[in-house]
């Protein structure tokens, strides 16, 4: 009986995992237009997702975000999801565009 409970709990956790991950697509243009710079799949809540090599994106599309997503501007004190988000949007899916004169370097979600 104990084996069945552990097996069922493990099966439920494995089947729930994809629902707890997000997909992010980084674009060089505003409103999720232009060329795709990078794609991140399988990100989990609480993670800081950032472009490698000091890259940045004008906009980022997202899907699979449970509650909210925080966008952090590139350069200076906000690199790597620090010192407060530049833009905060609700969960689900959507697109975040950096303010005029700025780009995004990292995001985190909950």
Number of domains: 1
Number of strands: 6
Q: Give the class from helix and strand content and strand pairing.
A: mainly beta
Question: Largest sheet, described in full?
Answer: 6 strands, antiparallel
Low-confidence parts:
1-18
- What letter string, H or E per element, gives the SSE order? HEEEEEE
Keywords: Signal
Signal peptide: 1-21
Description:
The chain has a single domain, classed as Gamma-B Crystallin, domain 1. The model is unreliable at 1-18 (pLDDT under 50). The chain has one helix at 2-16, and strands at residues 22-27, 36-43, 48-50, 59-73, 87-97, 104-109. A hairpin with an 8-residue loop joins strand 1 and strand 2. By secondary structure, the chain is mainly beta. It has one helix and six strands; from the N terminus they run H-E-E-E-E-E-E. Strands 1, 2, 3, 4, 5 and 6 form a six-stranded antiparallel sheet that branches.
């Amino acid at each position: 009986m104990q084996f069945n409970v552990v097996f069922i709990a493990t099966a439920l956790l494995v089947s729930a995992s994809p629902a707890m991950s997000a997909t992010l697509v980084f674009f060089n243009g505003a409103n999720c237009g232009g060329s795709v710079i990078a794609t991140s799949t399988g990100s989990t809540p609480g993670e800081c997702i950032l472009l490698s090599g000091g890259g940045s994106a004008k906009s980022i599309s997202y899907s699979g975000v449970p509650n909210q997503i925080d966008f952090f501007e590139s350069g200076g004190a906000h690199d790597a999801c620090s010192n407060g988000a530049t833009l905060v949007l609700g969960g689900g899916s959507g697109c975040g565009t950096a303010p005029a004169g700025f780009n995004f370097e990292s995001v985190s979600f909950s």
